[in-house]
Design a protein that fits this description.
The chain has 98 residues and is of the alpha+beta class. The chain is built from three helices and three strands, in the order αβαββα. InterPro entries: DUF406, UPF0234-like_C.
Length: 98
Amino acid sequence: MSDPLKKCSANDVAACCCVDVGTIIDNEECVAKFDQVVATEAEANALLKDLTQRAQNVQSEPCQIESHIEKVSDGYQLSATFTFCCGAESLIFQLGLR
């Protein structure tokens, strides 16, 4: 019987460069955070609209989005938190932003 503590360990596989997918995507990291400063409030709203659409494109269940736009010294800061139903969706969303 295998050791349950090693279930999600990168040491599970003896071959080089192989890792169990459960080591990377464990469904505990379902939240993606986004912060960016832009020049105008209109840009911040447009950015939020784009991010919301991107989240909706990967969600299987409704993504919970909390956001606020705040005036800062060099523009407007958009801060948003996207809570997905699973870690894979959060990862796909974040990779799509790169």
